[in-house]
Amino acid sequence: MSAAQQLEEGLQDLGIALPTAAQNKLLAYASLLEKWNRTYRLTAVPNTALAVSHHLLDSLAVLPYVHGESLLDVGSGGGMPGIPLAIARPDLRVVLLDSNSKKSAFLRQAAIELELANIAVHCGRVEAYRPADAFAAITARAFADLAALVSLSRHLLQAGGHWLAMKGVCPQAELARLPADVVVDAIHRLEVPGVTGERHLVRISSRAVGH
What we know:
The chain is α/β, with parallel strands linked by helices. 37% of the residues lie in helices and 24% in strands. This is Ribosomal RNA small subunit methyltransferase G.
């Protein structure tokens, strides 16, 4: 099966409808990731075929839970889930944040080559990031545990916003360490086509925000 067929069928399984132009851009991103990965080791996934399931579809599985007009992707690495989400939602303002300069260079180049005008890249540590506007959603896929994510990025969340933390198995120990002033709104079990093993999305909001 070609990568294009794999992506199309995977999107159908996820119940996500994307125009052909967006699907082509997703595949171009996967190819770009594979090309840069040979030099920069952006990801452990070695080829485009696996990237469709483990990067594109895995990222897009959270799309139904992304609301609002802005998103911060903390520890973006190779751009997951931020770049696929930005491709799927051109109306969404996405900032990709990573402290690694080589990964940030890739993210900037990807945004240029893929002509993603809704993406900005910030190279630095999340706790030191002070943008003019806070975000409706904060995502993290390969970041520290939940308590660290919340404590380091809470100043970046809008009133009424949510953290969307992507995890493998349900992180019960991490949930127990969350501070008392946040609430776990939901834990969604994600079924990602082509990905074996458990995938969960933890949705967290702050009790203190807006008070």
